[in-house]
Amino acid sequence: MIPLNTIDVSHINSEFSSLDSEATLDQLIELFKKDHDVYIFQNETYLGCVTEHDLMGHEGDEAVSTISTFVNPQPVITLDTPFHEAARIILNHRTHSVGVNDKDGDFIGVVSDKILIASLDGEDMALIDYMSSNLVTISDKTNISQAIDLLRANKISRIPVIDDNFDIIGLLSSHNILELFLDTSSTEQNKDQICVSDIMNSSPVLATEFQTLSDAAKLMIDRNTYAVVVVRTDTKIPIGIITITDLLENLSIEPAQEGYQVKVIGDYDESVLEYLVEESLSLVSKFAYFMGGSGKVIIRTRAYPKRKFRGQILYNIRVRVIGNKGFSQTAKADSYGVEAAFQMALDHFERAIINVIDIEEDRQKTIFDTGLDDL
After folding, report:
1. 120, 214 in Cβ contact below 8 A?
2. Confidence (pLDDT) at 59
3. Which helix (H) or strand (E) holds 28?
4. 257-366: which CATH topology?
5. Among residues 321, 322, 263, 287, which one has the least CA distance to residue 89?
6. Which residues of the chain register pLDDT less than 50?
7. 241: three-class secondary structure by DSSP
8. What single string gives the DSSP state of each residue in 4-24?
9. What is the pTM of this model?
10. CA dist., res. 302 & res. 287, Å (int)
11. What is the pLDDT of residue 319?
């Protein structure tokens, strides 16, 4: 059980990257070389923050002339804010930190995602039961343009790099790509000739499938990373990945309540919230005998407003269920309209869990039959 931690002064970092809203784009880019979030102020009034994802979202937009274009209006928290609420804000706004105001409303610093995941100490769920297992990998010889296409097509920000023996030799992230495009010494022609091996992190952090969420959190903090690649014991073949987003999702629901708690994170209209919650609870009730009678359902929604079909916006939805029997399953889907995408994700989830149940029943039957043979 995760304790209900709250923010106090010991969690706050008073040193953070910031700019005035009239600062230039070049000044913003310079700060991104050392930080993931830049906080924006206007005459000492907090406006929001800018992340590298906000910057990449305007790639090729020649109309951008001021950094105010990039500002993500992330709300601030206060002292005594519960960790799960801070985690929810970071997830909703896709940042790595959240600003903090004191009792007088003055901005006093930030709380990072690494501070929050430190509270997972003692969380003993095995990584194999929680990791994203539909793993996409890439060769170190792949051209960087193809790598970008692969990241975008799969809507992921990190991808393990493998050699010809399928062993992991690196990790490529959107941050690596951003650094490449911020490098003014490289020409466009040079960038087209760059391979994954030229910019990847060649020392990825690894964990085995039976290490725990607590282990993953400690690795991320100690090694200053945002992802841990999961490998089979005694091999370097990747079978999954755990990101800091996955750990924050686990923190984003208030603990210690009976039944299943549902948390919706991301882009959605309040009018569909009740539908999302009710359909989720209906699904988990069908499989409670296998997953357990209580747990968490985390729904992450992301809209792509520029992509529409017959007036419906494209949505990517991921559903993760964590049951109190140690079960965890994730499914995702893309479709036009939030309800259609959500229903497709639920269908994928149901097929996946039925497959898991069938495998477990076959395993139990084999054990039973073997026992009979030994009589």
Report:
1. yes
2. 52
3. helix 25-32
4. Double Stranded RNA Binding Domain (3.30.160)
5. 263
6. 1-3, 60-63
7. strand
8. --B--GGG-B----EEETT--
9. 0.79
10. 27
11. 92
Q: Are the folds of 127-248 and 257-366 the same?
A: no
pLDDT value of position 368 = 54
Q: How far, in Å, CA of 322 to CA of 330, rounded? A: 9
Strand 107-112 and strand 97-101: pairing? antiparallel
Q: How far out from the chain centre does Cα 3 lie?
A: 22
Name beta bridge partners: 316.
Answer: 302, 334
The whole-angstrom separation of Cα 255 and Cα 295 is: 9
Second CATH level (architecture) for the domain 9-116: Roll (3.10)
Architecture of the domain defined by 127-248: Roll (3.10)
Please tell me whether residue 214 adopts helix, strand or coil conformation: helix
Domain locations in the chain as residue ranges:
9-116, 127-248, 257-366
Note the pLDDT tens digit of each residue in 164-199: 989 999 999 988 888 887 765 655 556 668 899 999
The pLDDT assigned to 371 comes to: 59
